[in-house]
Amino acid sequence: MFSVTFATESLREMLDKQREKLERASEMDLRCEYFLADIRLAAGGLGVEEFPGIPVLDFMFCLLLSSKAVREGNSGRISFTESDLLIELVSTGETLTISRSWDPVAGNCTIAEFQAGVSLFSGEALELIARRYPAFQTCEAGNERGSGSDSD
User: Fold this and answer.
1) Which end of the chain has less neighbouring CB within 10 Å, N or C?
2) Sequential DSSP letters for the chain
């Protein structure tokens, strides 16, 4: 079993200053300074753990990178920008062992459960942010900064 969620009511409102800068915000600003919420993580053997005030997009980015690493047969790491906490994911066959830097008790889930949980969290988080902040959908961070275009 693997689940990562956040309570929609815990998504912090943007400050006026953030709202004004949303359309010009860099990728790192969006990842680390916007959209803070209380994230819950659960896995077999771990129970439910809550992390208050986590940047949702940054956590999602780390989850997606870990998901890709695991899919490619490597270990994954989920780090927390605002602290030194670390979650490591090591696959053995179809099982993932989930180790946390702050607790010696390891958890586990299947790779399929992890992949499904990451996908569900990412989709729901982006959908909620886009619904609550329509300007986020038109934000062109990266597109105007030379990240590539069809004419290159």
Assistant:
1) C
2) -EEEEE-GGGSPPPPHHHHHHGGG--HHHHHHHS-EEEEEEEEBTTEEEEEEEEEHHHHHHHHHHHHHHHHTTS-EEEE-TTSS-EEEEEEETTEEEEEETTEEEEEEEEHHHHHHHHHHHHHHHHHHHHHH-THHHH--TTTTTTS--TT-
CB atoms within 10 A of CB 5: 18
d(CA 120, CA 58): 16
What CA–CA distance (Å, rounded) separates 21 from 115?
33
pTM of the model: 0.82
